[in-house]
Amino acid sequence: MDGLAAKKQCLEEYLKDLGGVLVAFSSGVDSTFLLKVAHDVLGERAAAVTVRSCLFPKRETDEAAAFCKAEGIEQVVLEADELCIEGFCQNPKNRCYLCKRDLFSKLLQAASQKGLPYVVEGSNLDDEGDYRPGMVAVAELGIKSPLRKAGLTKEEIRVLSRRLGLPTWDKPSYACLASRFVYGEEITREKLSMVDRAEQMLLDLGFRQVRVRIHGNLARIEVERPDFPKMLEKAAQVNEYLHGLGFLYVSLDLGGYQTGSMNRAL
What we know:
The protein is built from ten helices and seven strands. By secondary structure, the protein is of the alpha/beta class. The strands form two sheets. A four-stranded parallel beta sheet has the order 3-2-1-4, with helices on both faces. The termini are far apart.
């Protein structure tokens, strides 16, 4: 047994010991792998819960629903409006804490209603190196993090996902749309829609890993550096479209795509 197989076995044993889980499922790389393994181990004692809100593009929730249907996994869909959480729209530095505290409290209620003893989420070992106030809420509420418990990194999860034949093994990383806002800038439905539509346009053009960060009336585009020539080729088209969405200025970040780049200000 190689090291990865041993970690996967550790994950399976941990989930088996939990006895029943409701998996916070976004259709991303980590949560898809966690849900698949949980369902393989626990069967009907593992269900998925997906939050539908203005912070997540419809394509993500559609992919989550399609995966659960294909795998025969029960899925609970919760409607949420994070903009109603007190203090959230002001986008403070602990925005993620406020959101996670509210949402995971709802997930705990959903798990209780289904008779499942635990809610589990898909953070991995790499997530411990970034500013993630949401993880404080996870710890406070007793949410379990099986992938971190098993010591799995993002790259290891991708490798194991490929071994399992999961379509998400090479899916680009994703985070909620609120992470596109500089701290202190008000989060509104209109601005969230602008970011969502801008990123969808870039995805439709064939860019795989994209972020459109919003700084007032300026859009700061992040793509991977090998995609810079393509971005310059499409510059006029991208510029015109984003202006049409309401951005006055459109820029390309010369640093390229970086996860959590808004946290550099902290």
